Write a sequence for this structure.
């Protein structure tokens, strides 16, 4: 009845053995006594993307899962915390950098963290202060050219976000080149 993804065998409210009951088409551990239903909801996480001079800020993970791999500065939301507050806090804790958020970058479903499914909320940010220094759960922190990111990148959601950072960084250059080319191709009057 219990799997690594189902930590409960007994109801956390009344200690009755849980039974698997289909609810809205999904089998869920359910208490036949008090009605408690265990939902395996994703855990919210938030982080930032800081790009300076064509380089993106990354941190090297100190702890498992994926210790030694690189990722964006991000972490799980604490109770009572907003995603924006989490992003700014995690950035400061992991890199020593202070920043102002400049907008929502993207939201990603994370399926490859062995601890839990996540919903990663990433913000674009501009550095406002601080000193770059790996801290908290980071072994290293540094800026890397978008074309030469360190490997491995820890999570698929971070890889997708970094691919979008690269695509967005190239987009204005292509738009200017296309606009310039179209002006040259127009017949003169």
């Amino acid at each position: 009845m219990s799997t690594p993804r189902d930590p409960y065998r007994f109801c956390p409210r009344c200690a009755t053995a849980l039974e698997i009951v289909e609810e809205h088409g999904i089998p869920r551990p359910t208490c036949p006594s008090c009605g408690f239903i265990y939902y395996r909801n994703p855990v919210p996480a938030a982080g930032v993307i800081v790009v300076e001079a064509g380089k993106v800020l990354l941190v090297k993970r100190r702890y498992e899962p994926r210790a030694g791999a690189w990722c964006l500065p991000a972490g799980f939301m604490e109770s009572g915390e907003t995603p924006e507050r989490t992003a700014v806090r995690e950035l400061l804790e992991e890199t020593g950098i202070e920043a102002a958020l400049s907008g929502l970058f993207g939201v990603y479903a994370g399926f490859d963290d062995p601890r839990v499914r996540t919903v990663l909320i990433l913000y674009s940010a501009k550095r406002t202060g601080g000193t770059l220094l790996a801290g908290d759960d980071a072994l290293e922190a540094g800026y890397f050219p978008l074309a030469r990111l360190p490997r491995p990148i820890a999570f698929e959601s971070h890889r997708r976000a970094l691919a979008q950072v690269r695509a967005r960084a190239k987009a204005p250059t292509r738009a200017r080149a296309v606009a310039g080319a179209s002006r040259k191709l127009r017949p003169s009057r």
In short: The chain has two domains: 1-40, 43-156.
